[in-house]
Design goal:
With about 180 residues, this protein is mainly alpha-helical. It is about 60% helix and about 5% strand. It has one domain: Four Helix Bundle (Hemerythrin (Met), subunit A), CATH 1.20.120.
Length: about 180
């Protein structure tokens, strides 16, 4: 499989200028379903697979699961900032360094449990948003770009499926 397919097995995220209510609802459903999809995938993992990278030089299955929890916690907090502050400047974080902190060596079931609780709360919030809420945005400090809440929802629906595909690569040893 070509390296680009291993890095982006479902393709790169392509932001749209706008999203319909039906598209937003579909993205929220994807976010809702992700923890169960991750859990189902991991039920087929053997112990060595958790420490197998999805591509040469890539994260291990264990790191991918912990990354999902870390990243989606940040996304949830960004949603809360957008809803409670006027175009907040968010705090960026070094996801590669976060993937190396000590707890990323722990059992991924911890992050699956966190994803289940986080996504339940996050989805409840997302389903209550108004059309005006969906247009609120944050400012990213590294890109200096405004990211509207509707795009963040689309991005994290993609992000979950993106990393689920990485776990499936590990499971199926397609590299």
């Amino acid at each position: 499989m070509p390296e680009s397919n291993l890095h982006y097995p479902i393709g790169k995220f392509i932001p749209q200028p706008s999203y319909t209510p039906a598209e937003i609802a579909e993205h929220i459903t994807s976010i809702q379903q992700l923890p169960d999809k991750i859990q189902a995938c991991l039920q087929n993992f053997t112990a060595p697979l958790f420490d197998t990278p999805y591509r040469p030089g890539g994260w291990t299955g264990r790191q991918v699961v912990h990354h999902l929890a870390d990243s989606h916690m940040n996304a949830y907090i960004r949603c809360k900032w957008m809803l409670t502050e006027n175009t907040p400047l968010i705090k960026a974080y070094n996801e590669k360094a976060w993937a190396e902190t000590p707890e990323t060596k722990s059992d991924p079931v911890l992050s699956v449990a966190l994803l289940k609780a986080l996504h339940a709360k996050w989805v409840f919030l997302l389903r209550e948003l108004t059309a005006d809420d969906l247009q609120k945005s944050f400012l990213h400090p590294e890109t200096n770009k405004h990211v509207p809440l509707n795009r963040l929802i689309a991005l994290y629906a993609w992000h979950g499926e993106h990393h689920l595909a990485h776990l499936e690569l590990v499971l199926n040893s397609k590299f």
